[in-house]
Hints:
heterodimer; A: nine-stranded mixed sheet; 32% helix; 16% strand; B: 38% helix; globular
Amino acid sequence: MTRAETSRQAPHHSKQSVRQFPQDRDTGSVGRVQVQSVTFDGQEHVLHLQSGESLSPITVAYETYGKLSPSRDNAIMVCHALSGDAHAAGFHGTGPAEKPGWWDILIGPGKPLDTDRFFVICSNFLGSCYGTTGPTSIDPGTERPYGLTFPFFTIRDMVDVQCWLLDYLGIDTLLAVIGGSMGGMQALQWAISYPDRVRGVIPIATTAKMSAQGIALNEVGRQAILSDPKWQDGNYPEEDPPARGLALARMIAHITYLSEESMHRKFGRRFIGDNGRSFNFSRDFQVESYLHHQGDKFVQRFDSNTYLYISRAMDYFDLELDYGSLEEAFSGSLASFLVLSFTSDWLFPAGQSLEVVGALKRLGKEVSYCNIESDQGHDAFLLPGHRMGDLVAGILNRLTRGGGP
Amino acid sequence: MSGIQALATEVKSTRAESLRHVDWTLTHLRDRALDDQIVSSVNVGDRVLDLGCGQGDLLDRLKWERKVHEQGIEIDGKAVTEAIARGLSVVHGDLEEGLGDLGDGSYDVVILNQVITVIRDPVTLIEESLRVGRRVIVTFPNFAVWRTRFQLLLRGRLPVTPSLPYQWHDTPNIRLVTVKDFRNLCRRLGLSVLKESYSSPGADGRFHPVRVWPNLRASSAMFCLSR
Lengths: 405, 227
């Protein structure tokens, strides 16, 4: 059983767009968009999680852009990253200062995910706090927020829920599934969980298994939250969250999204304003100010328990552990792959993409790969200034027309 | 990654680094010199692997004229971007490294278009290509063409020709080979030569087929090989 609803606003404290980037002036915007939501409940919609627990009902917040073709063969699933939401493109119409959705550089009329040609779907993944069921949702059993009673979930569970949404929308096969970072993990999982339902897979700046370095950085972020006295074993009131802990987690994470070069370019050793050394521990440097700003902004829009769960889902992502080897994981896949990495990404470096590419090559799968030149670090996949869009457009042309002249 | 692996990767990336600074636009014309002959040596529907495919000009032709299932490997990021953007299936990487991942006989044809003079171990590359593909098409600039003989003999200079367009200090070529030398190599390795084709630039600057005295007259050579 499903219940659909459309709301003007994102269902759950959805402050506007995640990161800053200028809009591409050469091509169009999808314009005004709305978050929609659907609730899956009843016996056919009990989610059996990888942890062994089960969850029901599940509400999914999602947005769509473009029109589904009569033959229903032009749908593209966009998967968001750790702190993202369903608002991938366009505007909610909240005011003149509103920033567009988080992947507006890629989605819109005439853009690589061309909404004149494709039907683009982006849903908030399971366990997040932007309208899809997660730790901040009300547990129907207790009528209080789940908090730490929310079951642990994995990337595989997220993809299962995305597949429910696909069924609900009446779409049998996706033209492509695309995502960066944690979104790329979901794209890879799609190719494995539903090999006959996806024709193209575009994992960007991601990995088939979270590295020790990645887990380590996540753990430091989690400890920042857990050691904030306001966390209170996860039972903090909504109006007084462990803000310092969450802000610190975000500051650490933000360093991993940049590169030495991009930090140097953006901030160098510049001081704030005309000040020089203050000889105290207040903020002297612009880079400090930037990190604090990112941390403070994040606290306004994200939930601490949710951050713990999602970063754990990332740590647990390991296709070799789940399937024995990458070859076994992808052996049943029928899709054409475009794997992308960025030269300056040290969180998910090129070598981790190449492990996926190597396995696909050994299996004789159709695969393209490019290590895109960029000094923007991991964040590059959200930013303009490189050729990611052309590459994505290329494989979509290949999938629709077979490419070529 | 172990220390030795890291070192190997570093050595390879140093080689990749040195190839990054090569001006490949100089060879655009030469690299297309034998495309007609290559296309006519590929069957409709073949699985084709082009090692060092550049921006995919040849693969694109093969895809449309021969309906091949194409795969390219290319070290130059800009060229890879162009190739993928035009809808071709291409992997960004070192061709000498990339072959190890591929199973025996996974391709009908492996193409080594103007690459054997650029890489360190051409014999291993040809043998590996014959493991991965049933047929291997090799093209190379013929160092024994009259132009190069003339430049070296009469002018005492290292030759700079349409098929060898670089100066001694900026050339990506670390091997030089002639038609006779290559035939010798094939004999020594016990390979069957299924087809040979040759071309040379005419007065119009375009490449034309050469049929007689290829070692003297052809500036580019194509060999189609099998075990």
